[in-house]
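Ops channel
N.P.: pipeline sanity check, posting one input/output pair.
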């Protein structure tokens, strides 16, 4: 049946067809906009146990989404092609050897899912996962985990043992050193604050200590002493002037 352009039914069909075409074009534009800038990746970039060799041909998934892929070399020597988004998000960190080792490891030690196991896993993430928000303070500064600990939780447990209390967490004695036997201990938050590479030391009457140690010795709140020094007070004034107590 032929339809005239003046026919109401024909005009309705044309309007719907035009809207369908515009919606498809708008969707393509939106997807292009949402993609944003192209993520950079280069040979030598390290993600977990994987080191990028080169970018390879993209892969079209069954749903039509095209994924960038890279050829990587694992620490175990195996080369494999992995999805770049999975690599950058930290979802893929090895050729599969880490999962197999973790499975064997857990059957031996039974610690999977415990706070101690998470401490071990997060220690590795801080040093090797570029996507971690605190990577720049660890792996970005060249801090690494020794091979013995990185490859087996059981070895980490054997060397470190369990923390004495829930208030203790892993601490590097030399803050510029690596996670390895001889440079790690279990320490409280106060002990770790004294060992921070951001620490400020103050000298008074022949003694030199960090702010937290002075606050403890003077029986003063750390925050009160810190803000006095940060505000430009002299050490003598900051130490000697009594802290005002708020009225009840």
């Amino acid at each position: 049946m032929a339809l005239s352009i003046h026919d109401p039914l024909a005009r309705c069909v044309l309007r719907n067809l035009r809207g369908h075409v515009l919606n498809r074009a708008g969707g393509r534009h939106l997807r292009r906009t949402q993609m944003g800038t192209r993520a950079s990746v280069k040979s030598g970039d390290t993600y977990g146990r994987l080191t990028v060799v080169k970018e390879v041909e993209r892969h079209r998934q069954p749903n039509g989404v095209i994924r960038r892929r890279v050829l990587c070399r694992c620490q175990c020597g195996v080369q494999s092609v992995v999805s770049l988004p999975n690599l950058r998000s930290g979802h893929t960190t090895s050729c599969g050897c880490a999962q197999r080792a973790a499975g064997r490891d857990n059957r031996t030690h039974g610690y999977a899912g415990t706070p101690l196991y998470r401490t071990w896993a997060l220690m590795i993430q801080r040093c090797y996962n570029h996507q971690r928000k605190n990577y720049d303070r660890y792996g970005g500064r060249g801090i690494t985990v020794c091979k013995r600990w990185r490859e087996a939780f059981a070895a980490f447990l054997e060397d470190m043992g369990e923390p004495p209390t829930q208030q203790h967490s892993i601490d590097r004695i030399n803050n510029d050193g690596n996670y390895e036997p001889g440079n790690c201990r279990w320490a409280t938050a106060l002990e770790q604050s004294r060992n921070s590479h951001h620490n400020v030391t103050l000298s008074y009457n022949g003694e030199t200590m960090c702010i937290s140690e002075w606050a403890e010795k003077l029986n003063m709140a750390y925050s009160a002493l810190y803000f006095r020094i940060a505000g430009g007070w002299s050490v003598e004034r900051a130490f000697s002037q009594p802290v005002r107590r708020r009225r009840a």
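N.P.: looks fine end to end. Residues 46-89 form one domain.
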